[in-house]
Design brief:
Length: about 475
Amino acid sequence: MERKNVWTVSDTAKKEMIFKFCEDYKKYISDCKTERECAAEAIRIAESAGYRDLKQVVAENGKLKTGDKVYACHMGKTLALFNIGKEPLENGMKILGAHIDSPRIDVKQNPLYEDSDMALLDTHYYGGIKKYQWVALPLAMHGVVVLKDGTKVNVVVGEDKDDPVLGVTDLLIHLAAEQMEKKGAKVVEGENLDILIGSIPEKEDGKQDDKDAKASVKTAMLRLFKEKYGIEEEDFFSAELEVVPTGPARDYGMDRSMIMGYGHDDRVCAYTSLIAMLDVKDVDKTSVCLLVDKEEIGSVGATGMHSKFFENMVAEVLNCLGDYSEIKLRRALTNSKMLSSDVSAAFDPLYAAAFEKKNAAFLGRGMVFNKFTGSRGKSGSNDCNAEFLGELRSVLEKHGVNYQSAELGKVDVGGGGTIAYILAQYGMEVVDSGIPVLSMHAPWEIVSKADVYETMLGYKAFLIG
């Protein structure tokens, strides 16, 4: 049941569309490296397509009707878009759900310290990473600092061509004999992922002429933070600063057939879901695009999929339609169908032993479906019903979409999860579907442009039916 390579079945016109679409995607992931940035840019794109803020509709006691398009953003990190269909909402929705958080290094709340004439920021890594991959790389810092008066200060260091970059140092090979004997998980310890940010000592203001005053690199860094961002050391207490790889996504391969970028997992599915949602204007069933936070750490917290945000927003939409009741809310959720838009592991011939080749996703062979994820004996997975998969096969083939199926590696080798099982708790049909990724969770991941475009077409086909 080997699937054809998308490039071999695409004519010149389609190949041009693939490359054109991926230029826009590269810009999106180059500009958006945090969940806040992803949500803000998605809102900008949605508003330009005619979407209105649901919060404003509710505040004005407004009403919704067929054809209306609204969005709801929660805490600047989680987003839900609704395109109101012809059918009553209680008949169910068609949902595309992706996450916009990615593995990274977070700055702690009391981070700044000095050691041996170097200033560093103490950190705590976020999500599943191979810690040794994050050393000796040029890194940037993105985020927000909220002052006591509520002022929100946006911080981006390391992305502009004239910016300095930051990073985590590594031990030279000449002294690394003991380090090289350690297991991969211990080669670099989590507490050693601190960010080097400066090395010029400076005396405190008013003490420059005091010969006995000690110069300090930390003092110099605090002056820089104050001059550039207006923040004091205490303000780190209410900051969210994320350290990520610096620089834009790039074409990968001599033929430019792939993209190397930070955060393909899962922003490649978030972007394709968003564009599919905006492209499909008129729908029978209400269509929804969910872009959520915290998936990489278990979908917890107020902005994760386990929160009641989505359920609450469906209730608000029902109310604005003049059709709210608790039973109709339950029916709307249970009768829905969802593509959990998340990436899958692409087969890598250099690590073939980790895969069962007949049931692996391949770069360039289109949109991939994972009937289940989880680990060991499918533990923790959403195991999609055969009936839903049969329905999807019919729709995809009707629209000429190239697709494939996969498991996440060999049985008992590892495993993973998505937001699929959370939405399935409502009783709706859910399956994982997305794009194969090489080097997943590394600072730089790789996808095929053909798969990116084909998956967008697949998401559109699902919404159209």
